[in-house]
Amino acid sequence: MKYNPKKIEPKWQDVWYETGVFKAKNGSKKKKFYVMVEFPYPSGDGLHVGHCRSYTALDIIARKRRMQGYNVLYPMGWDAFGLPTENYAIKKGVHPSVITKKNTETFRTQMKSLGWSFDWSREIDTTDPKYYKWTQWIFIQLFKNGLAYKAKININWCPSCKIGLANEEVVAGNCERCGAKVEKREKDQWMIKITNYADRLIRDLDSVDYLEKIKTQQKDWIGESHGAIVKFPVEGVEEFIEVFTTRVDTIFSGTFLILAPGHNFIEKHKGKIENIEEVLKYREDAKNVSDMDRTNQDKDVTGVQLKGILVRNPATNEEMPVWVADFVLEQYGSGAVFADAHDKRDFKMAKKYGIALRTSIKPDDELLWQKVKNLEECFEGDGTLYNSAQFDGLKSAEARPMIITWLSSKGLAQPKVSYKLRDWVFSRQHYWGEPIPMVFCKKCASTGGSAQAGWQPVGEKDLPVKLPNVKKYQPTDTGESPLSLINKWVETKCPKCGEDAKRETDTMPNWAGSNWYYLRYIDPKNSKKLVDESLARYWMPVDWYNGGMEHTTLHLLYSRFIFKFLWDIKAFPTSIGSEPYKKRTSHGMVLGEGGIKMSKSKGNVINPDVIVKQYGADTLRLYEMFMGPFEQMIPWDTKGVVGSRRFLEKIWNLSQKIYPVIRPGTPSNDGVELRKLLHKTIKKVGEDIELMKFNTAVSSMMEFVNAYQASSEGLDKKDLSDFLKILSPFAPHLAEELWSNSGQKELCCEQKWPKYDEKLIEEENILLIVQINGKVRDKIIAKSGLTQKEAEKLVLKSEKIQALIGKSEVKKIVFVPNKLINVVI
RNA sequence: GCCCAAGUGGUGGAAUGGUAUACACGAAGGACUUAAAAUCCUUUGAGCGAAAGUUCAUGCGGGUUCGACUCCCGCCUUGGGCACCA
């Protein structure tokens, strides 16, 4: 019989999914293991070969853990709210939920055809009202705890998509989705105070097992810096301008002050600024320049002086002029900086506009200092203070805390930690998202007094606030959500006072649903609670979470934040800790042939269905594991796929070559060697899976099969079944078929992971490498464990080596046990 | 500009201080076949050599070491991230 994956693969998939072997069991006495992959956005394009890579990798881990006796939860679901579906709906006039249903069906069928061991009974869908009820519930908790607030702010506005974008969604000043140039626009937006958690989001990284580069990226994104707020008194007014600085050691060289164009000092003191028209014009121009362009180093520095305004340097008590410049950002620090010769932008600006400059830091390099002193070059590093009164002679690092203490004793400074991270814009003016469950009541607003007054959360018993049906899905021209056009839905009663009120018509961003989905898999059908306490206690945290590097600063950070918030409000037992993921790894992208990104426009997209149809799911799984290191980007190579298929066929054909009984008597040398190799392979495959070195795990199995093929003997039944067990996470269908063919009644995927025999792995003989001056000159077979003396004897006896040494003097002999001997002459 | 990865045959890659090029693809030759496909066998980093051998080669230049793809210093290139964060 020929290997025919088309026949055997669907057969075993039916067996697995019908018998429910992959179902995670609640209330089990076994140790749990929760493995998770990022759930996909079910796009109309179907499954990508990139999904296949990471889903197979974690499937291998899930399958291995089951075989190791764990109660494994490996779930799957759909992150189905989002713009592509909405855009398709706009174009074709089909309801997004219809498209979503169709797409998820395609995805599910494709996924089942790959034999991934997901527990399909726990499937979730973020667009299901039963699911988003709880996404809305979380929003209400954020609101009640003061972490959700409405604010009129300058937001990033995409004129093409007609939505506000989070800072994180703006790529190089353009909209992440459509590429249009992002503008600034003032809008009332729901904001989430993720910044309250900045410190914990950094600190708690120490307690989790994430790849180092993931930790680094998150830390950089949050961008913690330690410094001080320094107060600059304004002449003629009882007021200060506050400046955040990390370089308080340079305070004595501060000769002018720069404000961000949007700094509220300007608005407040309009009357005092002599050239206010010019300043306001500058502010208007700055509004439509992206932060990235504003802070671009190659760009020419621009600025305008606030004529009529002077401040005093709190250290030197000298007068300083005040300027505005767009490279100073409103949102960072206090939106103001003091300027001196120790910052390149300040330096450039002072030279351009003829503002006085002074230096106060001496670099160690004498030559450089000459230039710095003469204001020919800007020095930004740490050095030794001069021109700094009582602090002269101190190093920058020791001076900083002393200067802060000195200034704060005068009430002019205080230490401060600042973050790059900004609050999260949570409103979207779109249809296909979770409605924000808030109601605005005029009556409550008039009596409330506070800025948030009038906003009332929908009562929890009235959740979910379901998306109403609309005829048109596109956002309105005014930028409001299409929901705003449905008067019947918008008009409601205030949950607090019962008067006429209006619903919030904005929806949530697509990360809202993925913030907490790991909790829902645990208890997907609970209509009373977010998650059952005892189930959460058993299953959380996620033991191993894999996803793309591109989600490190978005989804991964947001979901850690939301979990910490839920922990704080005790939405689940706090004993499970405040980090949702114990371990986080990431996969490399699968590129198109030739190393370019796969895309429809380039026509280089590989459809996994085609590969499954032509070669089989096991071949696709195996190939994607074999193609290269898991965390590395890798180009697809269709020609390479046949290698994996050939390997599986070899196994199929060789499985006929079994000894029906345990080898009688002493097996031949050949047989012993083969068994030794098998045990080495068991060891290697097991270890490589843990390290995600799937490529070398596959190649070691290939080596074993090659040796098996070359051997004159067969394997006995025990050895064959051990091999099938280690193969089964990679090629589960083939393993299952051969397992059953060999007369086994149970399923291969339910077997115990095999143990290797230490004794069989120990070598009796080793290959001793003989070097002279570090160059390989000979290889001798020797007894394992031989001593240096024995080795020396052996080597010096060798004619070949003797000839090479000749009359030279042996200076030294380096010996590495069981490996190498190096004669230095 | 800053930060982080990576650079090895024709190609994907292996080796993390000790035999550089495992495994796989591709290519060439052969066996089987009327023929082709499939399969199997052999060869396959480059140079010199009839062979035994031997020299060179892991982006480039130095260094440490008995010994370096691996560690250190300086550069180049590619990919990713960030945007002068005061």
Helix content class = 25-40%
Largest sheet: 5 strands, parallel
Radius of gyration using CA atoms only: 34 Å
Number of helices: 29
Q: State the strand order across the main sheet.
A: 2-1-25-26-10
Q: Determine the strand fraction and express it as a percent band.
A: 15-25%
Mean pLDDT value: 87
Global geometry: globular
Query: What structural class should be given to the helix and strand makeup?
Result: alpha/beta
N-to-C terminal Cα separation, in Å? 62 Å
Count every beta strand, where a strand is a DSSP E run of 2 or more residues: 34
Detail the poorly predicted runs.
660-664
What's the short version?
Helix content is about 35%, strand content about 20%.
Explain the overall architecture.
With 825 residues, the protein is of the alpha/beta class. It contains 29 helices and 34 strands. The chain has a 5-stranded parallel β-sheet with strand order 2-1-25-26-10. Strands 6-5-9-20 form a 4-stranded antiparallel β-sheet. Helix 23 packs antiparallel against helix 24 (694-710). The longest helix is centred in the C-terminal third of the chain and has 22 residues, at 669-690. The radius of gyration is 34 Å and the shape is globular. It starts with a helix and ends with a strand. It binds one RNA strand of 86 nucleotides through helix 7, strand 12, strand 16, helix 11 and strand 28.
